[in-house]
Known about the structure:
- The chain is mainly alpha-helical and 390 residues long.
- Helix content is 54%, strand content 5%.
- The chain has a domain at 85-154.
- Residues 1-48, 288-292 and 384-390 have low confidence and may be disordered.
Amino acid sequence: MISAKLVSDHTAISPRPTKLSRHRILSLNRVTFSGHESMHYIRLMAGTENVADCAPVFVVGCPRSAKTLLYNMLVSAGGMAVYDAESNVFNLLLPRFGDLSVPRNRERLMSTWLRSKMFAVSGLDSKQIKTRVLDECRSYGDFLRIVMEEIALRQNVNRWAECTPTHLLYLPEIKRSMPRALVIHIIRDGRDVALSLDKQKWVRNFWWEKKPTVMAAALYWRWMVRRGREYGRIIGSSYMEVRYDELVREPRRVLAEVSRFIDHELDYDRILRTGIGSVSKPNTSFEVDQKSEFTPIGRWKNLLSGDDLAVMEGLIGDILVELGYPLATESHRLLSQQANLALTRRLYDLRFDFKQWIKTKTRLNKFWHRQVPPLAPFSKASGVSQFNKT
């Protein structure tokens, strides 16, 4: 958890908000706002917030693709609220609690959320945030905006970002409920992601398969990246891709591009000085030798055998090449196994699509999300959820 001193130091370097031009105020006056948005836009028109600065930023990507690093860079730059958790609003709360225009669903949501880690690390007053959500919230975009606005106000900043990785699968819903949202999709070499995911044992292979489980993890990466890029093409100019290896090797150049996209100053020297979270301490699945250099890029070259690498590149090579990652396996070797691997890819695509459909489109989602760690009761004394104690 981020200390109070760190948050204080972070807010002290926040850029001053700029006032709206007369033209932009007149433009706002032509727009009709609903009641629960009115206070937000009163602040805008008063000049205490800037329209561009207030556009929410979603940092998304396949798990283990270093979205936490990019998020921590954004908040280390100043001017953005520090929230030491993933909000899980669209991937967990939405399927579990249903339509928030229904008062009973808002009550159920707050009853669970106020006992979770997601609230515990927010620094918010439970009565105050509950009252505002019950009065103003009518959608999950409303809920996330209300929570993050309150956190930002407490930290004296005028902007916020969010970093739930699997929100990548909910970009259409996010853009419908938050039209001004900006999306940064961070993409990492799928071979490295697969190794990291396999360390966590998050993705299982089919019971009849003899392939190592790391292959299932690689196919999950492929499925996630393809889905995210499809959604990115739909939402257009509100979407940006960042390559993890480029961020590590050329942070100043990449952050300059991100800065232009989100219209927010990202001074790399300031980011290093502030050093929130993984900016100063790597978030890795692998053991790190303190005496040696931390090398998160290209681990697959040393950790995958020649045979395993050939199978993995046969499974996900199409997306690796599309993203500009060169393959290490000879082309004739890849071609010899394409028929068998094409069937495997198709089966996993169907599996991941089916699971996502169950989670989001059927009543079974209530059973699926009945007890998951982010929603479990959280003990502030121990710093862990009761779910993890069993």
